[in-house]
Design a protein that fits this description.
The protein has 409 residues and is of the alpha+beta class. The protein contains twelve helices and eight strands.
Amino acid sequence: MTSTTASAITDAELDAVFAPIFDRIAAGAVAREVDRRLPFDEVTWLKEARFGALRVPVEFGGYGASVRQLFRLLIDLAAAESNLPQALRVHWSFVEDQRLAEPNPRRERWLRAVAAGTLVGNAITEPGVGAVDRYRTRLTEDGDRLLLNGVKYYSTGSLFADHILVAADRDGERVGVLVDANAEGVTQHDDWDGFGQRLTASGTTEFTDVVVAPDRILGPGYGVAGPTYGTAYLQLVQLAVLAGIAARAERDARDWVSARTRTYTHASADLPREDPLVQQVIGRLSAAAFTARATVLAVTDILDRVLAAGAEDHGDLAEAELAAAQAQLAVIDIVLAATTQLFELGGASIVSEQLRLDRHWRNARTVAVHNPAIFKARAVGDHLLNGTELPFGWSAGERGAHVTDQVTR
């Protein structure tokens, strides 16, 4: 099944729908950070506008947006609230999988459900031993029933979701299982304790004898060997978050400087906004935001083409994976530098807790540790020098003979 790069809607039409919602979300960003209030209301606003249906084809009730249009909006949403695009990360790959599937009633049912507002979260990563060799979360037979049991961590966005895509082991095979978020036996915890991206609901999810219908087994699970579009796609969502953080950091810094009258006896101008040194910092921040955005959108053009061709050609998939990896290595450095440089604009007052400008660096630093760049840089170099295949599916956990079934973080 192939998708199409031709968009059924214009950028202007999308902006007319979502820009006012993003502005409304941005208005409460600092207060949510201070209160550590999960953005349930904000997710509801997005659902009501059917944000999750951006990539659903028009014939199934969606917007029919291109990959480029989706990621343009994800960057803008991240500038308003960086936690939200990350919380929805796996939702987009779920929709993409449905788009690519052969026509069948189940595919149409899920596409129409997403078009009506359904959101999908995830439960992939496991604590402790993890899933380097296999998942400890298991789908087993119990008479005529299938039962899901296990513990997941970093279940990003699942507290906001209607369904949870769970990566599990079934007799040694990795499978994806779609579970209702409110199903009996599902317990979710908001216990994510990272210093950034605090509102992504990236906590622990427990599955205890959750009954799974056969039609909720969606095929191979995350981490199956072989080329895929999915890892580049998922990585690019993180980069869109970084690009949005850079945009908001530049905007916040510019607003702060524009209103400021205090300066120093040895400054180059009477007002900070007229000081050439301050102007230089703002210029660099704007360049970082521009470069991060342009880099992300450049990769979306490749993904649009790959998905339009059915995401089956190994050469195309390798091109997309390489582009996303190279973009990751560039965008991380650019955005982390920018979110540090903004503090050069002022004295002690710029670190006020009321401003929470530190959230930009904390959030960027947290996003940047996903799929660590040091391993990705080596993989890119090995690929370019020796033709070694890129690691499309990566799993975290313990390696070697000492691996047991212990469950620790």
